[in-house]
Every structure is written in structure tokens, then in C-alpha cells.
């Protein structure tokens, strides 16, 4: 089985087999496919979402394999997990960022660290907590679609 192909004109997608090896992982078809899918989608996907999309692409991995794969990718830092209402969602990003999570539909969106710098500084002033380099602020609420 081969990983899902990149979208046309997508020149910035890294060589996923190199990334896996660099993080001490074997390049299994499930790891390559899941990492490629998360990279190309630009979305935070649940294990079920990943399974559905891989099956749509003709790559019938079972849910247990996909779950273990997503957890492994998260453990080594190639992906991250966001907890919210509903299932855990997984994403990849080249830079640390914050997230918004819709309490109604569970949609997760990235929020650039630069856009939240003042808020994080204020949180530090109020609580003394200093966010780590990979620290993520989670804002829960209702997205624009669910608020209508």
C-alpha cells in the first residue's frame, strides 16, 4: 500500500519516511498513510475520520491499527492530540500553536501563538504559570457555524 498522494502543486510536504526514521520509527504503511493524511488535510481529525478517509482512498486499515498509529505519532511529537467534546482529534503543524474547540460540533481550529501572545502574558501575570515551548492554550466555546 502506498500513502495518499499530495495535492497537486504541494511542494512543501516533507518526506514522511524521513520524518518517521528521524523520530526512531519504522516506516510502516499505516504510519506513512496516517502522517500523510494529517499533513495534507490541514484539519484535526478523529481516529474514525482518519479510518474513513483511508478507506475512501482504498487503504482499509482497521480502527485499532489507526488508533495505535496516531498515538505513536503523538508520543514522538510528529502529531498532537486535542481533547474536547467527542473524540480526541489529531493534527500536525510545523510550529507550536493554540487551539479553539467547539463544544457543540467538536471542530478544532489552530490559533497562531503570535495572535495570543498578550493573552498568554496576562495569564502568566495572573497565575504565575509559564507556558512551555509546546504548550497549547485551549479555548472552548461555540464555533461560528454552531452559533448561528
Span between termini? 43 Å
**How many helices does DSSP assign?**
6
Q: Shape from CA axes? A: globular
Helical content class = 25-40%
Unreliable segments of 5+ consecutive residues: 1-13
What order do the strands of the largest sheet run in, or round the barrel if closed? 1-3-2
Number of strands: 6
Q: Tell me about the largest β-sheet.
A: 3 strands, antiparallel
Mean pLDDT: 86
Structural class, please?
A: alpha+beta
C-alpha-based Rg, rounded: 17 Å
In percent, how much strand structure appears in the residues?
15-25%
Helix-strand pattern: HHEHHEEEEHEH
What would you note in describing this structure?
- The protein is of the alpha+beta class.
- Helix content is 39%, strand content 16%.
- It is built from six helices and six strands; from the N terminus they run ααβααββββαβα.
- The chain has helices at 16-22, 29-41, 47-56, 63-75, 117-127, 144-147, and strands spanning 45-46, 80-82, 89-91, 97-102, 108-112, 138-141.
- The strands form two sheets. The chain has a three-stranded antiparallel sheet. A three-stranded mixed sheet has the order 5-4-6, with no helix packed on it.
- A hairpin with a 6-residue loop joins β2 and β3 (89-91).
- α3 (47-56) packs across α4.
- The longest helix is centred in the N-terminal third of the chain and has 13 residues, at 29-41.
- Residues 1-13 have low confidence and may be disordered.
Key traits:
148 residues, alpha+beta
Provide the fold topology.
Blueprint: H1 16-22, H2 29-41, E1 45-46, H3 47-56, H4 63-75, E2 80-82, E3 89-91, E4 97-102, E5 108-112, H5 117-127, E6 138-141, H6 144-147
Parallel strand pairs: 4-6
Antiparallel strand pairs: 1-3, 2-3, 4-5
Helix pairs in contact: 2-4, 3-4
Amino acid at each position: 500500500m502506498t500513502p495518499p498522494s499530495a495535492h497537486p502543486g504541494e511542494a512543501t510536504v516533507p518526506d514522511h519516511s524521513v520524518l518517521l526514521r528521524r523520530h526512531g520509527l519504522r516506516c510502516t504503511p499505516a504510519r506513512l498513510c496516517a502522517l500523510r493524511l494529517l499533513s495534507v488535510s490541514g484539519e484535526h481529525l478523529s481516529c474514525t475520520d482518519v479510518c474513513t478517509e483511508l478507506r475512501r482512498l482504498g487503504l482499509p486499515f482497521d480502527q485499532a491499527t489507526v488508533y495505535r498509529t496516531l498515538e505513536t505519532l503523538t508520543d514522538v511529537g510528529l502529531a498532537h492530540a486535542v481533547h474536547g467534546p467527542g473524540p480526541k482529534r489529531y493534527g500536525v503543524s510545523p510550529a507550536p500553536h493554540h487551539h479553539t474547540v467547539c463544544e457543540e460540533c467538536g471542530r478544532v481550529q489552530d490559533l497562531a501563538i503570535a495572535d495570543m501572545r498578550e493573552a498568554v502574558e496576562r495569564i502568566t501575570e495572573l497565575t504565575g504559570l509559564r507556558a512551555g515551548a509546546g504548550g497549547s492554550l485551549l479555548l472552548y466555546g461555540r464555533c461560528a457555524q454552531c452559533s448561528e
